[in-house]
Write a structure and sequence with these properties.
This protein has 1 helix and 8 strands, in the order E-E-E-E-H-E-E-E-E. By secondary structure, it is mainly beta.
Length: 160
């Protein structure tokens, strides 16, 4: 299984918007989630460190929520970028999404020391609003599901 995302959508986020703790490439302390295409689905791989422990042997649920959240908004950006005729890494400006709604369902405890894989299915619900259904696997085990509604980042977020 390949776990290195070569052309992640987050690589194309403008520097002003690449600081997210979950997916911001410029946040030294962040998770650095990277989201890309796997056919018509989206995928993010992540292996939590020991510091992301809920109880010994299991991953803290907040990390799972963060993974679902950033995978969802990254998936929205991927889908709109593709709809606009572009793919990650082609040099075109990448749309940036923010979370309008986040729902996470924890199905099974998520074990430490296992690569996590978030898989997303994207649905357009408005030109500026997209929904992503996310499944989080630890190895082959489905540990969590989620739904993210993302909206194109409003101009009011730009402080310059």
């Amino acid at each position: 299984m390949t776990t290195k995302m070569v052309n992640a959508i987050q690589d194309g986020y403008a520097d002003d918007f690449a600081w997210c703790y979950g997916c911001g490439r410029l946040n030294e302390d962040g998770h650095h989630f990277r989201t890309g295409w796997d056919g018509e689905k989206t995928v993010t791989y992540y292996e939590p460190s020991e510091k992301h422990t809920a109880i010994p042997g299991f991953v803290y649920g907040g990390v799972i929520a963060s993974l679902v959240d950033c995978h969802g908004t990254g998936s929205c950006a991927l889908a709109l970028h593709r709809k606009n005729g572009h793919e990650p890494g082609d040099g075109a400006e990448v749309p940036r999404f923010v979370t309008a709604s986040l729902n996470v369902n924890y199905l099974k405890p998520t074990p430490q020391g296992v690569m996590l894989k978030a898989v997303g299915t994207v649905e357009e619900i408005h030109p500026k609003k997209w929904k992503v259904n996310v499944e989080v696997y630890a190895g082959e085990v489905l540990c969590a599901t989620g739904e993210v509604v993302g909206v194109v980042m409003p101009a009011t977020f730009i402080t310059k």
